[in-house]
């Protein structure tokens, strides 16, 4: 599996005028969050203050992991970044533009694979092309590239039900990458997988991400996964979710099987564990 | 020796089990009627039913055709009426508020009770039977299709929304395929009801159809003929049901 094989397809996609225009404000953060809160059922008796206020800036091309206990609003944060939900208060920008809804420059991978059982693997991967009206021939070529990259080449015309959990999630990654999004939003994408598949897929994702140079926001409850993939790890507090700490991961890239064995990795992991389990203690 | 070779006799036996049980029932029936000398007007033996069926073959054939026509035509009309309504109810809140109570009220009326009235209004033709079939078929299809449109998982909707998909795109790409298994469930319920509806219509007033034939033959103590007609109705019901099932297996491959 060669990641480099995909590079020409991405270069071609990058020359599309719409995409070129989008990349103009290079200095603008991929995601900028200022004073954002989210309250569900606002004004009603059972209103739940799920998130915030949160301030956050994600540099283009960086990989940011968010960890936190369940129910801390980390998935809410991702839904806000995706434009699927609106914040109750505060301001959000995407590449310098106000974030007021979903964008074709965003690709999402959910915890569940969300593949349509009535379509083949290839048709599922092609979904963004159909919905966004991308040129069919190019998109098909790209879909085949992505399937080859993720080892699903021989399963293009299979039904998703015939794939293992890990393969389904690979297909979901292919679909998220099809339209060459600037921003990848990953909502516990390995959460439903077994430990071995999870580690294998995270390393694969790390490699692909580094090759593509896109921005990624990963929501996870797995500390090791957060460190292994991220340039930064944000630690969230329980509800209402706030960012308690922002840890830089100064581990060398490319990350590989040996990364988790590095002393520095263990140091960062221990620091994060302290922050999560002993929040009262000063850093 | 392969595993398949070992497994084959077992599966063959399992396949034969259903037909064998039918054969057994028929044999027990035949033996019991003969042993206890049950009169034919009370309970005819299978052999007597078969005899009546071959004696009355042309009559049975034409009346089967009449009932089949009423059933299938009524079913198709119900299908044509319920699908647009299901779409309207699934996607328009005012339509749902306006139509659902009316339809629910209509569904709550026992159709058997309506049959004499419908016959009074529409006369003795095949039309009152078709209308009864439409009435009994309509609701199961409608309810199941509406449920099908709404059975779409939220994550799939999120995925479509994240791609800025329009409502028509979501309908075409997501709601229609998601509703297919429900649609076929509704059709299978409806087609079984349809046969019953047609017979009820024929019981009330008719000059043809298997329901009419059953009524006539029992009143003249031609019980074997009545049994033959009932057997044909059963076969019709099963064939129609499995016809839809076959279509479902061809179209809805993913849920099998």
UniProtKB/TrEMBL annotation, chain B:
It is found in: Cell membrane. It is a multi-pass membrane protein. Keywords: Cell membrane, Membrane, Transmembrane, Transmembrane helix, Transport. CDD domains: TM_PBP2. One of its GO terms (cellular component) is plasma membrane. The chain crosses the membrane at residues 72-91, 98-124, 130-149, 183-205, 225-244. It comes from the Bacteria. Residues 64-248 form the ABC transmembrane type-1 domain. GO terms for biological process: transmembrane transport. Its main location: membrane. This is ABC transporter permease. It comes from Propylenella binzhouense.
